[in-house]
């Protein structure tokens, strides 16, 4: 097997390649209200708690997003495109970590959306500039004991989410984690689960990969791709991942991630929730 591609970040590699915080996860259905920025609607729906949101099947009045773009020449390995704003777009599938940046709520959101004539777009949704067309009920996983907090990352030069502990919890059933560049995504998930004593778990998350290789689809070749895990399952130490990926140009792709073939580009934010045994 060919060696995975590597890229050179501007800062020294951090000694700790993984931040993983045990926490308590509770699944809920909440209502997002129209007429205010999506970020505010998400924050209000969970009373400011840390959470993972499934934002699929949602109509918007206005939707703003960016997609990955080549390095701008300032030391970053990649950057973002100019902002695109769509009127009356529909979010087809998206996921978001709700955390904190500079003391205020912040959401990191990746997904796919359709414009008014059905054209599909993908990338990084700007929740603070997106407004829903109508109230909608969505599924969330609310977290106790951990959350994502943004900070400047010396290795990559980006301001990134990092999982942090917010308090002690009894009977943790989940792990909120962030992983660093060049770690194989499936291997890091297995490590997170093993360290937490999880044999079976549901995996959600988003981040970036150095290209994206699928088992059932042509690869996305851009050296920086934005990725959303659309389905993730850990079973007895083996992980199966399905994902959406978008690169610098061309359409997005969806499929089953090839095993041991995808390494992290800048960061990957993960939530593992222990599967409950069937009684």
Question: What features would you describe in this structure?
Answer:
- The chain has helices spanning 38-45, 185-196; strands at 18-32, 51-54, 58-66, 68-70, 78-80, 84-87, 90-101, 104-114, 120-125, 131-132, 136-144, 146-152, 159-165, 174-179, 200-209, 225-235, 238-246, 253-256, 264-274.
- It is mainly β.
- The chain folds into two domains: 18-24 and 149-274, 60s Ribosomal Protein L30, Chain: A; 26-142, 60s Ribosomal Protein L30, Chain: A (2-Layer Sandwich).
Question: Key features?
Answer:
mainly beta, 60s Ribosomal Protein L30, Chain: A, 15-stranded antiparallel β-sheet, 51% strand, globular, DUF296 domain-containing protein
């Amino acid at each position: 097997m060919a060696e995975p591609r590597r890229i050179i970040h501007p800062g020294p590699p951090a000694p700790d390649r993984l931040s993983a915080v045990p926490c308590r996860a509770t699944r809920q259905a909440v209502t997002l209200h129209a007429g205010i920025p999506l970020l505010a609607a998400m924050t209000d729906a969970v009373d400011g708690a840390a959470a993972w949101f499934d934002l699929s099947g949602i109509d918007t009045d206005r939707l703003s997003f960016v997609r990955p773009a080549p390095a701008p020449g300032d030391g970053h390995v990649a950057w973002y495109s100019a902002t695109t704003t769509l009127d009356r777009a529909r979010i087809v599938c998206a996921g978001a970590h709700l955390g904190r940046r500079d003391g205020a709520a912040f959401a990191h959101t990746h997904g796919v959306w359709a414009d008014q004539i059905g054209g599909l777009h993908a990338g990084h949704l700007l929740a603070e500039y997106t407004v829903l067309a109508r109230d909608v009920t969505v599924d969330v996983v609310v977290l106790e004991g951990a959350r994502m907090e943004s900070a400047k990352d010396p290795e990559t030069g980006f301001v990134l989410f990092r999982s942090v502990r917010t308090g002690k919890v009894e009977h943790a059933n989940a792990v909120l984690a962030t992983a660093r560049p060049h770690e194989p995504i499936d291997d890091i998930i297995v490590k997170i689960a093993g360290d937490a004593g999880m044999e079976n778990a549901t995996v959600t998350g988003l981040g970036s990969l150095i290209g994206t290789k699928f088992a059932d689809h042509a690869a996305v070749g851009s050296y920086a791709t934005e990725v959303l895990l659309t389905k993730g399952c850990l079973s007895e130490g083996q992980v199966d991942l399905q994902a959406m990926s978008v690169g610098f140009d061309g359409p997005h792709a969806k499929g089953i991630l090839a095993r041991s073939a995808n390494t992290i580009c800048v960061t990957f934010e993960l939530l593992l929730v222990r599967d409950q045994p069937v009684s």
